[in-house]
Design a protein that fits this description.
This protein has 477 residues and is of the alpha+beta class. It contains seven helices and 24 strands. It has helices at residues 2-18, 29-50, 62-79, 290-293, 396-422, 424-428, 438-441; strands spanning 91-99, 102-108, 120-128, 132-136, 140-144, 151-159, 171-175, 187-197, 206-215, 225-232, 235-238, 242-244, 250-255, 267-275, 284-289, 300-307, 310-316, 327-335, 340-346, 350-354, 360-369, 386-389, 444-450, 457-463. A four-stranded antiparallel sheet has the order 4-3-6-7, with no helix packed on it. A four-stranded antiparallel sheet has the order 8-9-13-12, with no helix packed on it. Strands 11-10-14-15 form a four-stranded antiparallel sheet.
């Protein structure tokens, strides 16, 4: 043993002298430990004996060095996994329901698996209701998914440290779909959430309500009654406030207070089953992403002010658990006189625009949670409009008087034209003879005509007017 340690120490020292390096980090953990011990022992011994053996020819150390390197390679190879290792499939693979829309997969390593010192892993493949493939080192897996269509999965053993080694065969398990008559489950299930201020506690300043609606299945009997449940995280609740149709069947549900976290990222699971005396009602479940069903509140405390041709608008963030920097906004400015709409998008809670100062404006604002805080969802409703500016529209009474006067003038014009065309004016108002004047007498000419009889004389008086005087003919017998 002393000779071996001596040769080993001298070989190491010789390797150091020749600049030969050995990368201990490339060895397996067991090889690293053994190599480190040998290294320390050989180094210490080599340093002690180096001064006594300096005169020895270093060439005699070459065989020892080669033996050392060969032994190290053998040691490393011996600690590598056996390429002929056969992986066996897991055993006792089961699937069970652990909650609403939640399945628990469990299995155990094969007790006959060789190579206890190797690290095993597992590949899980889900076939229904949706395909999914992932790897894990655990022997159980919890999956959130719909279950009314059934659930099917398979698992196999893999070598976690060497994926190139062939995996084991697959083992499968199924979770049957729940019983029920076709066409009896609810359809068009939709849900929305809304956040309100919670004045009852400071620990939860905001509370989330949930509202769900659905339609009755086409094949559901008239006496069918539906019941709704929701699960968020580990909490499950049953609905207590329903809305009914004309047949007194539940078609909507309202949760004024829930355990839902409006800022959370977990899926909301909703489950609806039913009962009837004439059929087995098939249950239905659905998963909702919170950002897709959350109805954001409109901004509050909107103010607007006009100074000359500058319109300044300000508002506060909606009632929400999200901070102020988590919102995008849209401002809608409507010019009531010109009928023009201007819409602007921004990330701040203030906006300034150039306008004309002779119009009246309607202003509304809406909000949405930004993608930096949560996945982009729906816009809120528009806020109630506020009005600023001058109202150029005339009052209703003024418009009525204008229209009335225009109508009267139009009727008088039509009447006048009708009278002129049909000479109605002359018929309705015949001319009245004017009294004789001295001026007209001056132009009177008297003609005496005699008939064949001496007894009768007719005096004919004719009036001749100069231009500008009315002509009047009269006969006197």
């Amino acid at each position: 043993m002393a000779l071996v340690r001596l040769d080993l120490g001298l070989a190491v020292q010789f390797a150091l002298t020749l600049g030969v390096s050995v990368n201990v980090l490339e060895l397996q953990p067991q090889a690293q430990t053994r190599w480190t011990e040998c290294w320390r022992s050989a180094t210490e011994y080599g340093h002690r004996k180096l001064e006594d053996r300096q005169s020895q020819d270093v060439i005699t150390m070459a065989p020892t060095l080669l033996i050392l390197l060969w032994a190290t390679g053998i040691l490393q190879v011996d600690l590598l996994p056996d390429k002929k290792l056969v992986l066996l499939p897991p055993v006792n693979f089961t699937i069970e329901v652990s909650g609403l829309s939640q399945a628990l997969l469990r299995w155990e390593p094969n007790p006959d698996q060789e190579g206890r010192n190797v690290k095993l892993g597992y590949r899980v493949k889900i076939s229904a209701p949706q395909e999914e493939d992932y790897e894990t080192r655990s022997t159980e897996s919890k999956r959130v998914t719909i279950l009314h269509k059934g659930f099917s999965a398979s698992v196999q053993t893999i070598l976690w440290t060497d994926p190139s080694l062939p995996a084991s065969s697959w083992v499968s398990a199924d979770l049957e779909a729940p019983a029920g008559s076709p066409g009896t489950s609810v359809v068009n299930l939709t849900c929305t959430t809304n956040t309100a201020a919670n004045n009852y506690t400071d620990l939860r300043p905001y509370q989330v309500s949930l509202h769900c609606t659905w339609l009755v299945g086409k094949e559901a009997p008239e006496d069918t009654q539906y019941f709704l449940y929701y699960r968020y995280g580990s909490r499950t609740e049953e609905c207590q406030e329903y809305s009914k149709d004309t047949l007194k069947r539940n078609i909507a549900c309202w949760f004024p207070r829930t355990f839902i976290n409006s800022k959370g990222r977990d899926s909301l699971a909703v489950y609806v089953n039913g009962s009837s005396k004439h059929a087995v009602i098939k249950p239905f479940d659905q998963l909702f992403a919170l950002h897709a069903i959350d109805r954001v509140n409109p901004p509050v405390n909107i103010t607007a002010q006009i100074e000359g041709t500058s319109l300044s608008i300000q508002w506060e963030k909606p009632v929400s658990a999200f901070p102020i920097h988590c919102f995008d906004y849209e401002v809608k400015i409507y010019n009531t006189r010109k009928g023009y709409v201007q819409t602007e998008k921004m990330t701040t809670n203030a906006f300034t625009s150039i306008i004309d100062d002779i119009s009246k404006y309607s202003i509304q604002v809406r909000a949405a949670v930004r993608s930096v805080c949560r996945a982009m969802g729906l816009w809120s409703e528009w806020s109630q409009p506020i009005y600023v500016g001058n109202d150029e529209q005339k009052p209703l009474t003024e418009w009525f008087l204008i229209v009335l006067m225009a109508t009267i003038c139009f009727l008088l014009l039509i009447f006048s034209l009708t009278c002129r065309i049909c000479h109605l004016w002359t018929k309705l108002f015949p001319p009245v003879p004017a009294p004789k004047s001295n001026v007209k007498d001056f132009f009177v000419t008297t003609h005496y005509e005699k008939t064949g009889s001496n007894e009768t004389e007719i005096e004919v008086i004719s009036y001749v007017e100069e231009p500008g005087f009315e002509v009047l003919e009269d006969s006197v017998f």
